[in-house]
Amino acid sequence: xxxxxxxxxxxxxxxxxxxxxxxxxxxxxxxxxxxxxxxxxxxxxxxxxxxxxxxxxxxxxxxxxxxxxxxxxxxxxxxxxxxxxxx
Length: 87
What we know:
Elements (H helix, E strand, L loop, with lengths): L3 H24 L6 H21 L4 H21 L8
């Protein structure tokens, strides 16, 4: 069962990351392709999973790291331009 403090922490982490990345992407143009972004996400998750397997006490880092990654990817998809799209 998830504790209330963990749930609140996950929500705060998600929304803080979304706000920070929204501000960043308003100032900077996205010039990374979707395949490259998915590759970065795969490497990031591999690193997190490897860390958790080696040190089981850091399992909360996997949870919060996954939340940060998903919020970053959500904002990335919102701001990237599709081929042929008129801005």
